[in-house]
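quick one before i forget lol
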Amino acid sequence: MQIVTLTTDWGLKDWYVGQVKGVLYSRINDVNVVDITHQIPKFDIRMAAIVVQNACFTYPKGTIHIIDINTFEGDSKSFIVVKYNDQFFICTDNGLPSMIFKGLDVEITDMTNYVADSNYYTYAVLDFFVKIADVLSQTHSLENLGNKKNDFAVRKEPFTNAQRGNSIECQIIYIDDYGNAYLNIKDKEFLDILNNRKFEIFIDVGATITSFSTSYADKSIAGQPLMTVSSMCNLELAVRGDNFSRLFGKKVGDKITINIKD
């Protein structure tokens, strides 16, 4: 069975998801189309990078991933396929793949040997990406798709944290449906910097975090925030049985300072 995943900012109101799935099922024999998400905020490539890294990398070898966020319609030269860990990622060279695959060993090719199924470029996934997915399902190879590329044409940086003296300046990079806030620092990096010292995170008046929680059950006081580790190994701010983001008015991009005490 060929697995094809879809990650988009289309939403679920319109017919786009159903239309693309119909074409994929029509073109590729024995295919399983998996929705990663269609709820990426419109044109938000940084959010898309986080989702793809944490969802798509877990799939088996040979999986084909179609990613449509902020596609440059009408410029087929910006469409690429990235091969990583024997999986294939069909996307646009708009900065998104440079964030997804930062520091990883990849192969890149464009798709210049193929043309879209229509002369219109308002819907590249339907007119072009599904055709490439069909080709890849048969060949599982980048050969003959187009020209190999040594690097991405557009590079953009993901959310970054900075260590300044005895503090770490972090950002909230993702908020899940429970209102839990994910920071742009991994647990190992944090523990290495901490080096067995104490820390303090001021969230709001009467809401300060000074300990590391291994589960949501570590805090029994209603409305009090805790810090734990998410499934993506990033530090996570949460409130047991409640919504951290709503309670403390936090959103993606907000700064969080971790003060380290010697």
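fyi The chain has six helices and 15 strands.
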